[in-house]
Write a structure and sequence with these properties.
Number of strands: 22
Radius of gyration: 23 Å
Order of helices and strands: EEEEEHEEEEHEHEEEEEEHEHEEEEE
Shape: elongated
Oligomer: single chain
CATH class of the largest domain: Alpha Beta
CATH topology of the largest domain: Deoxyribonuclease I, Chain A
Helix content: 10-25%
Strand order of the largest sheet: 11-12-10-9-22-21-19
CATH architecture of the largest domain: 4-Layer Sandwich
CATH superfamily of the largest domain: Endonuclease/exonuclease/phosphatase
Number of helices: 5
Distance between the termini: 40 Å
Amino acid sequence: MSSAPGPHAGEVTIRWKQTRGHTTSFRIETGLTTFKQGSATLPDHGRHARYFTVGGAKRSVTLTAKQVASAGAAPGTGKHLFFRLTAVNTKGKGTATRAFPYLRSVAPRPVTPKAGTPLRVASFNVRTARWANPSWASRVDAVATAIDVHHPGVVAIQELSPGRADGGGGDTAGAPRQTQTLLDALAARGADQYRLVRTTWYIAPGERAGTQGARILYDSTRYDLLSDCPDRVGARPVSTSCSMEMPVLAEDDLGVRRSVSWALLQDRASDKRFMVVSVHLDERKSANADLQHRYQALRRTQLRAVLARVAVENPDHVPVVLGGDLNSWQAARGGDPAHDALVAAGFYDTADAVTQVNTRWTTYNAFARTVPKSPSGWGARLDVIATKGLRGAVRFENVLQRTQTNRPSDHDMVVADLQLS
């Protein structure tokens, strides 16, 4: 049996061999998660299960874009289908079935983007400086190298704090900030054209808040910053400009609040404008099903709040590029409602690019020396680049070396090549 993207956008093609002549039809069952195929440890059916029937004389089928969309994997959803084939024989007294012994998976044919002005965007969770082993000081050069080598025009960054680069608490006076040390490391590589939209606090030091690490880095030789995003109000190194606090659970301490950031940029060569958003959703997970559903629902609530604010900040409806760590993925327990809300709002997941690199590997490496293969064949993709107003992507890469001694972060950088049209 084999499978591949179909001949047209949104389609998938499945082929198989079968020599017996007693089959009256074939049933294809699909799901968005793995399901039982001779295994007592998996559920009988995947999430969002769907069934398609074809004639017994068939040895291949192309599921239409409409059928694939009904199964939950339309282009731009960033999702793939797990499927199994079952031969059905209704001749005789009853119905007999025989399932193909292995579960398979396939992704649909992506959309080809319209020609336009090239735009390379990255999203990178660089891991907070408060993480001690390995320290930010030992990683910042590797982070800068990854950015410089791939040379994105814009980077949505997460966990880049305005706090002390040494990870210590207290006053930053006389101590370098994590934000500034990244700029310094880029400059040391000759990439001093990069600017951060904001380098200081979104919430004043001493007030209860969670991570303020959602930042936007851009190449100032290619793009102009049009948003008014001052770093400070008066003499204090704090400003709420170009940021907002995301919702939390009713019983949460304000210490878990997270900031999101945005900026309106303009391409210098073409004058085309676009908005960039950097987001880092709540990170909590639980083995308790009810609590896990609450955390997943919170991430959806946070995402919807971000999109509502972005709509207000974008009255001219210019294209929006959202990059971030959603802390969820297709096969996550409790579903993937934040990502579903993103797609429902009209965003296109650029992992569904014409060219895809390392999309079957997880974007979360956990600082492992060697990243293991996913048992399902598809790694957990926590890190996302999605667009609204730009449909399709030329290329998407999960920047991953399977074996690497000194990783820049516990997340891989992801990069998408887009066309501003």
